[in-house]
């Protein structure tokens, strides 16, 4: 097991600023490109991260800590953000995400002896039993997944423009 | 063609700070993990980016702009950094990269009418004829490739720790 609460918090704490640095001062073309039908652009990825801060990690964490082991943890709709009005400029979205993340990390700090509850169990609607440490690990990997998605989508915008160098750039054929 | 000089410079300008935000304040475990034998950790990725700033983009750009169309552009050894002493702390490496990148972007600004030379041709040692716009596009995608690599390597550190959520996290099986 590589997970540690300290290590997880380090990454979770870095993500909002890293996204800010990646997406600031970019022209609209970089932000609105995607990988084709039913794929997300950077606005939509940040919307999804915002939605996750509101309705995924902390509600599930609290259900595992305080809920009935036999009651499912709250479901999370990974596509909910696509049905919401998301016309805010990217700076506003990034700021919203940063505020929510900071609030959620402060929330973690208020939990007495969180470290001693890492093996607490919840019932995931699809997977069945999951541990609190698995939820926290997933939060970290989820951040990294969506950073990877953003840079991959941006890279693919230049898929044809790189000419023969495409042969050296595996990111252009990843999903 | 999606490439524009302005758009390319936006991304190239963001990369050092984005890497700084991603990799600062992380414990050593995050920085020294890799994907197995003959794969790179984050120190090595930054070393490679430093090497590229020194010996890849600008020397090749200058060869295309000023060289003989029939003389190959300079080769670049993608593994050169692995044979150098790279024990600097990550903050030093990130600072070195940032300084080199700023210097190189300033260098681009001094080239008169760069925009009008985007179709200039050079001879790549493997690919044959390449255009200046393809080199600049590749510089951008190369940045994004290595950001994706860093977050993928970090994500894989928690591959087992996420438990059943692995099924939702494609990054864990990407290369």
Automatic annotation (TrEMBL), chains A, B:
Q: Name one Pfam family in it.
A: DinB_2
> What domain of life is recorded for the organism?
Bacteria
Signal peptide: which range, if any?
none
Q: Which SUPFAM superfamilies match?
A: DinB/YfiT-like putative metalloenzymes (SSF109854)
Q: Any idea where the DinB-like domain is? A: 12-150
Gene3D superfamilies per the UniProt record, alphabetical: dinb family like domain
Protein name (Swiss-Prot/TrEMBL)? DinB-like domain-containing protein
Organism source for this protein? Answer: Virgibacillus kapii
